[in-house]
């Protein structure tokens, strides 16, 4: 399964903070925002990933991640000239996706929850049609909304409805089979001139091939593209990390635990940031998983 992170857009809801920098590079806790969606793909076991961003921002993401080899990943980059809708990411990434399934995640979405890795691995194992992830929200009018019947089957999808039929927001994480690219190519732009991801999902729904995975109690999800959401998510991350002594979206730790890299390599990555608490945490995790002290090399 391939992965795509859509990290484009102007970040206008965060102006003036994003006038000179991509919102996906703003910090949540001590990590750039984009660490969180990238961690989601890694937790799903996905190692072949494309980051789609504006021409101005691509060099900054490349500076941050390079080719991804340090994490045991393969990271490619592609430009989105202007924000033409989420579904355009499927077209831009067509060559990357090929004929297989793809996980598309938005660069400003934050996910965290117990056993989330197991949920992601299970749902990505054999993707047929479209798999959406729903989350209960207090004001569903701000989101795409999914409605299920008494048996939990997905029956409708609405984009920012005035009178929502449910409180289940469709999050910015989507799993698709190999038909997604052609479906996106056949879309007509919306009144806003964009290729809407909800329209892709509706095609799958009409085929009877769309399914909703409910992320309910025990999970946290937010669209961090507003000042308030950015602040609240940062407070959530800080509280959990300080109280539990663990790190959310620590890419080096995920890479080690998933077997993408060995503990020695992870330790060296941490040593490069050894003056920070993040770097020291990575080093400690690597030593714990290796079962012995590890001297930094090179």
From TrEMBL:
<keyword id="KW-0460">Magnesium</keyword>
<dbReference type="InterPro" id="IPR005835">
    <property type="entry name" value="NTP_transferase_dom"/>
</dbReference>
<feature type="domain" description="Nucleotidyl transferase">
    <location>
        <begin position="2"/>
        <end position="235"/>
    </location>
</feature>
<comment type="function">
    <text>Catalyzes the formation of dTDP-glucose, from dTTP and glucose 1-phosphate, as well as its pyrophosphorolysis.</text>
</comment>
<dbReference type="Pfam" id="PF00483">
    <property type="entry name" value="NTP_transferase"/>
</dbReference>
<dbReference type="GO" id="GO:0008879">
    <property type="term" value="F:glucose-1-phosphate thymidylyltransferase activity"/>
</dbReference>
<keyword id="KW-0548">Nucleotidyltransferase</keyword>
<protein>
    <recommendedName>
        <fullName>Glucose-1-phosphate thymidylyltransferase</fullName>
        <ecNumber>2.7.7.24</ecNumber>
    </recommendedName>
</protein>
<comment type="similarity">
    <text>Belongs to the glucose-1-phosphate thymidylyltransferase family.</text>
</comment>
<dbReference type="InterPro" id="IPR005907">
    <property type="entry name" value="G1P_thy_trans_s"/>
</dbReference>
<dbReference type="InterPro" id="IPR029044">
    <property type="entry name" value="Nucleotide-diphossugar_trans"/>
</dbReference>
<keyword id="KW-0479">Metal-binding</keyword>
<keyword id="KW-0808">Transferase</keyword>
């Amino acid at each position: 399964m391939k992965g795509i992170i859509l990290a484009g857009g102007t970040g206008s809801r965060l102006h003036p903070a994003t006038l000179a920098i991509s919102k996906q590079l703003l910090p949540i806790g001590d990590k750039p925002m984009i660490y969180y969606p990238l961690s989601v793909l890694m937790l799903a076991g996905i190692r072949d990933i494309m980051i789609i961003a504006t021409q101005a921002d691509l060099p900054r993401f490349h500076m941050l991640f390079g080719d991804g080899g340090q994490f045991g990943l393969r990271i490619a980059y592609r430009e989105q000239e202007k924000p033409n809708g989420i579904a355009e990411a499927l077209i831009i990434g067509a060559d990357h996706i090929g004929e297989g399934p793809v996980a598309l995640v938005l660069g400003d979405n934050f996910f965290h929850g117990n056993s989330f890795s197991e949920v992601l691995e299970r749902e990505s194992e054999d993707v047929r049609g479209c798999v959406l992830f729903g989350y209960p929200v207090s004001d569903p009018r701000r989101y795409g909304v999914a409605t299920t019947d008494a048996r939990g089957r997905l029956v409708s999808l609405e984009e920012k409805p005035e009178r929502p039929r449910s409180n289940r927001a469709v999050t910015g994480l989507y799993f698709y089979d190999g038909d997604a690219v052609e479906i996106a190519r056949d879309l007509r732009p919306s009144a806003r001139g964009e290729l809407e991801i909800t329209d892709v999902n509706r095609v799958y729904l009409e085929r009877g091939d769309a399914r909703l995975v409910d992320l309910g109690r025990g999970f946290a999800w937010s669209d961090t593209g507003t000042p308030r959401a950015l602040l609240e998510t940062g407070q959530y991350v800080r509280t959990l990390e300080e109280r539990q002594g663990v790190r959310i979206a620590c890419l080096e730790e995920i890479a080690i635990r998933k077997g993408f890299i060995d503990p020695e390599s992870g330790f060296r990555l941490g040593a490069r940031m050894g003056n920070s608490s993040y770097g020291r945490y990575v080093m400690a995790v690597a030593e714990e998983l290796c079962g012995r002290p590890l001297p930094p090399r090179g």
